[in-house]
Amino acid sequence: MSVETVLKQIFTFVTTLNKAHSDQVKKWDAKSLQNAFNWARYAEEVHLKLKDRSFVEDLDKQIKVMTVHLSPASCCQMSFDELGKASQIMFLTLMQNPFFPESLLENLFLSYNRKLDSFSFKIDAECSILSSNLTTLTIGQDMMKSSTIGNEPDEQNDLHNVNSQAKLLLDGLSSIVPRIDETKADSYVKILLQRMTELKNGISVIVSMYLQSGLTEDDVSQMICTFIIQYLQHNTNISFENVPVDLLVQTSSLDFRFLDIFINWLIHMAQNFSVNYPEGEMYEWKCNIAEPSMDFGTICYYFSQLSKANKDIKKKLHRKLNEYSMESFANIFRDILKHLQ
Question: Name one Pfam family in it (predicted).
Answer without folding.
Answer: FANCF
